[in-house]
């Protein structure tokens, strides 16, 4: 962070932005402004270089072909990896999550190299596509309320020893490999299968990223009433359909 200004980077909106994931950038931006921060939001298209001076990078989900193109371009560019070595925070969803791992299976049924920022490997699930509402308990180390989100993915994700599960599923599939885990995180890099957009359902995750960026333990309270109503509605839906 420089001065009071937060640099928020929304990565490849032209390729990775399904199921309203761009809402994550809106929520992080809004909650930062509500805490008096000046926010510079940069939307970086896939034909532009990734800036290395961002504080928080957000990456959304995508269909299989855009996912392949995004991974190729991010790997060639190298900016996101450099930003993480400088201490940047990354929060990724679904295809974005798979891209941050070591490898995934692409739309041509080939193993494709990811950025290696998370110690995870994604493969194609044998079972039906994982679709539906999810409710999960977030890693107690992160001290956050339960995670609510919507999943829609064929890929499944195995965690290596360095990655910690982001959450433990109560309803739904999450990573989809039978260990009951959903998402992964290590240091300042996070991945989840949750759309929704996930920040609108879980504004405390946006606050976690802001706290990490500001290097503080707490933020001034923000009005959570609208978010809370949405959370309750979606948690009830997850519980009812399971
Ligand atoms: N294409 C990936 C999969 O199906 C990611 C899908 C998504 O981002 N929603 O696993």
Automatic annotation (TrEMBL):
<dbReference type="InterPro" id="IPR043702">
    <property type="entry name" value="Lipid_II_synth_GatD"/>
</dbReference>
<feature type="binding site">
    <location>
        <position position="129"/>
    </location>
    <ligand>
        <name>substrate</name>
    </ligand>
</feature>
<protein>
    <recommendedName>
        <fullName>Lipid II isoglutaminyl synthase (glutamine-hydrolyzing) subunit GatD</fullName>
        <ecNumber>6.3.5.13</ecNumber>
        <ecNumber>3.5.1.2</ecNumber>
    </recommendedName>
</protein>
<keyword id="KW-0961">Cell wall biogenesis/degradation</keyword>
<dbReference type="InterPro" id="IPR029062">
    <property type="entry name" value="Class_I_gatase-like"/>
</dbReference>
<dbReference type="Pfam" id="PF07685">
    <property type="entry name" value="GATase_3"/>
</dbReference>
<comment type="function">
    <text>The lipid II isoglutaminyl synthase complex catalyzes the formation of alpha-D-isoglutamine in the cell wall lipid II stem peptide. The GatD subunit catalyzes the hydrolysis of glutamine to glutamate and ammonia. The resulting ammonia molecule is channeled to the active site of MurT.</text>
</comment>
<comment type="similarity">
    <text>Belongs to the CobB/CobQ family. GatD subfamily.</text>
</comment>
<keyword id="KW-0436">Ligase</keyword>
<keyword id="KW-0378">Hydrolase</keyword>
<comment type="pathway">
    <text>Cell wall biogenesis; peptidoglycan biosynthesis.</text>
</comment>
<feature type="active site">
    <location>
        <position position="195"/>
    </location>
</feature>
<keyword id="KW-0133">Cell shape</keyword>
<dbReference type="InterPro" id="IPR033949">
    <property type="entry name" value="CobQ_GATase1"/>
</dbReference>
<feature type="domain" description="CobB/CobQ-like glutamine amidotransferase">
    <location>
        <begin position="8"/>
        <end position="202"/>
    </location>
</feature>
<comment type="subunit">
    <text>Forms a heterodimer with MurT.</text>
</comment>
<dbReference type="InterPro" id="IPR011698">
    <property type="entry name" value="GATase_3"/>
</dbReference>
<keyword id="KW-0315">Glutamine amidotransferase</keyword>
<feature type="active site" description="Nucleophile">
    <location>
        <position position="94"/>
    </location>
</feature>
<keyword id="KW-0573">Peptidoglycan synthesis</keyword>
């Amino acid at each position: 962070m420089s001065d009071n200004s937060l640099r928020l980077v929304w990565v490849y909106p032209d390729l990775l932005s399904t199921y309203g994931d761009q809402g994550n950038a809106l929520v992080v931006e809004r909650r930062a402004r509500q805490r008096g921060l000046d926010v510079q939001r940069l939307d970086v298209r896939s034909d532009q270089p990734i800036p290395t001076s961002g504080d928080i990078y957000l990456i959304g989900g995508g269909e299989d072909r855009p996912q392949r193109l995004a991974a190729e371009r991010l790997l060639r560019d190298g900016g996101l990896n450099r930003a993480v070595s400088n201490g940047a925070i990354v929060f990724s969803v679904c295809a974005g999550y798979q891209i941050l791992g070591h490898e995934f299976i692409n739309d041509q049924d080939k193993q494709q190299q990811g950025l290696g920022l998370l110690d995870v490997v994604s493969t194609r699930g044998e079972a039906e596509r994982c679709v539906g509402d999810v409710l999960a308990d977030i890693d107690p180390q992160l001290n956050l309320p339960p995670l609510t989100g919507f999943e829609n993915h064929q890929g499944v994700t195995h965690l290596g020893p360095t990655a910690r599960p982001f959450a433990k599923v109560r309803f739904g599939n999450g990573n989809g490999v039978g260990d009951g885990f959903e998402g992964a995180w290590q240091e300042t890099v996070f991945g989840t299968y949750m759309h929704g957009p996930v920040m609108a359902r879980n504004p405390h995750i946006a606050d976690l990223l802001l706290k990490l960026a500001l290097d503080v333990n707490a933020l001034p309270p923000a009005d959570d009433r609208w978010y809370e109503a949405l959370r309750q509605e979606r948690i009830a839906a997850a519980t009812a359909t399971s």
